[in-house]
Design brief:
four-stranded parallel beta sheet, alpha/beta
Length: 166
């Protein structure tokens, strides 16, 4: 399970399975480019599940065992992160972050499935779903194939996949 520094700062997420006896805990990964967000006492640093904090190679941090990655643009190298996770035996990851994290993974071509929720609610202006994904026009849009749609009460959960070669 991967979150960016914005989500970590705003939500202080726990990112561990709770209330399910014998559940396999995910590796919790926090991308904290500048090493300013994850501090002692953060919920992801408890002993409920393993945690990996990824920071830029040149970031100063007092946290032990951080993963140092090269910078790209404003963040960390997604390919380098995925390579490091693969070396640790990770074969799939869930992005539980905001538009910057999602945008960086889409821009890196590192997304193969999207699960979105649609509620019958109109909110007006709000945050974008993707930031800096390199998609600026409808013709550049990443077209997805809907694999499943499920009604959950009044809401819809839509699972879509990225077509091969997209």
């Amino acid at each position: 399970m991967i979150v960016g520094s914005g989500t970590a700062r705003t939500d202080d997420p726990h990112l561990a399975v709770r209330g399910v006896d014998g559940a396999t805990q995910p590796l919790r990964v926090v991308l904290d480019t500048e090493a300013r967000t994850v501090r002692p006492g953060a919920r992801v640093l408890d002993d409920a599940a393993p945690t990996l904090v990824a920071v830029a190679e040149d970031a100063e941090t007092g946290l032990p065992g951080v993963l140092r990655l090269p910078r790209t643009g404003r963040g960390l190298s997604v390919p380098a992160l995925l390579e490091a996770l693969y070396a640790r035996g990770v074969r799939s990851a869930l992005l539980e972050g905001g538009p910057t994290l999602a945008g960086s993974f889409v821009a890196a071509g590192a997304v193969d499935r999207v699960v979105g929720y649609l509620a019958p609610v109109l909110l007006g202006a709000g945050p974008t779903a993707l930031a800096e994904a390199g998609i600026t026009t409808i013709t550049e849009a990443l077209r997805l194939d809907v694999a499943e749609s499920v009604r959950l009460g009044p809401d819809l959960r839509i699972t879509a996949t990225v077509p091969k070669g997209a």
